[in-house]
């Protein structure tokens, strides 16, 4: 993965929304990696920053560098395994908000288009009806502005760049997307206008259902 001019924001250094003996929920800034990259200059990440104070911190899931929003990390192996099982079983509630260029074909719907890596152009992904892996996204239009729709996105599957590719496939790329937007849609925003605003899961120890929300800055 090539990251040019990687200089993530340091204010705030970390935006922790919840913490206990088992988990940490963080609001990740756009432009900050979820976990370190391979190159030395790409070591800064949410995980790296958390590990300064919590050396036992463990990864559960990730967000694209350009995407902002809620991430959960685990403090121990047992909590990590319990949370990862929930992601595998698709019992975790995830909702994103995005601003797209143009208007979606309906006020709500489902996009079921299989995907795979676009190997010559990785990390880009692509729709492939023959060799792609199953990918399903639900959407709901919640508003409009002069450039297009504001939409909730709920991924049923968790493919890399799934929401970005599915929005592009409908002809409504997410604004500010350097990989999938046309030049006008890319120039319409200074960052990718995609934010993980809602995350719900069962606490790995108490089994209580937890629901976190964090509105998008945009």
Describe this entry's structure for a reader:
By secondary structure, the protein is α+β, with helices and mostly antiparallel strands. The protein has a domain at 96-194: Pseudouridine synthase (2-Layer Sandwich). 15% of the residues lie in helices and 32% in strands. Strand 11 and strand 12 form a beta hairpin.
| Chain-averaged pLDDT | 96
Count of β-strands: 12
**H/E element string?**
EEHEEHEEEEEEHHEE
Low-pLDDT ranges: none
What percent of the residues sit in helical stretches (DSSP H or I)? 10-25%
CATH homologous group name of the domain at 96-194: Pseudouridine synthase
Report the C-alpha radius of gyration, rounded. 17 Å
Question: Would you state the CATH class of the domain at 96-194?
Answer: Alpha Beta
* Euclidean distance between termini CA atoms: 27 Å
Keywords: Isomerase, rRNA processing, tRNA processing
InterPro entries: PsdUridine_synth_cat_dom_sf (IPR020103), PsdUridine_synth_RluA-like_CS (IPR006224), PsdUridine_synth_RsuA/RluA (IPR006145), RluA_PseudoU_synthase (IPR050188)
GO biological process, one term: enzyme-directed rRNA pseudouridine synthesis
Function: Dual specificity enzyme that catalyzes the synthesis of pseudouridine from uracil-746 in 23S ribosomal RNA and from uracil-32 in the anticodon stem and loop of transfer RNAs.
């Amino acid at each position: 993965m090539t990251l040019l001019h990687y200089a993530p924001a340091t204010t705030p250094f970390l935006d922790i929304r919840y913490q206990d003996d088992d988990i940490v929920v963080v609001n990740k800034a756009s432009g900050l990696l979820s976990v370190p990259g391979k190159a030395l200059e790409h070591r800064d990440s949410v995980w790296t920053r958390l590990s300064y104070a919590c050396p036992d911190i463990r990864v559960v899931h990730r967000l694209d560098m350009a995407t902002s929003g809620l991430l959960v990390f685990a403090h121990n192996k047992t909590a990590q395994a319990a949370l990862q099982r929930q992601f595998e079983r698709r019992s975790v509630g995830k909702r994103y908000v995005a601003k797209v260029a143009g208007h979606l074909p309906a006020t709500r719907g489902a996009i079921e288009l299989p995907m795979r890596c676009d190997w010559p152009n990785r990390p880009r992904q692509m729709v492939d009806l023959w060799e792609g892996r199953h990918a399903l996204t639900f959407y709901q239009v919640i508003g409009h502005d002069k450039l297009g729709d504001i939409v909730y996105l709920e991924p049923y599957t968790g493919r890399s760049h799934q929401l970005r590719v599915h929005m592009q496939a409908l002809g409504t790329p997410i604004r500010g997307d350097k990989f999938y937007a046309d030049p006008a849609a890319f120039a319409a925003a200074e960052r990718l206008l995609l934010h993980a605003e809602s995350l719900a899961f069962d606490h790995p120890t108490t089994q209580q259902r937890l629901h976190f929300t964090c509105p998008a800055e945009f």
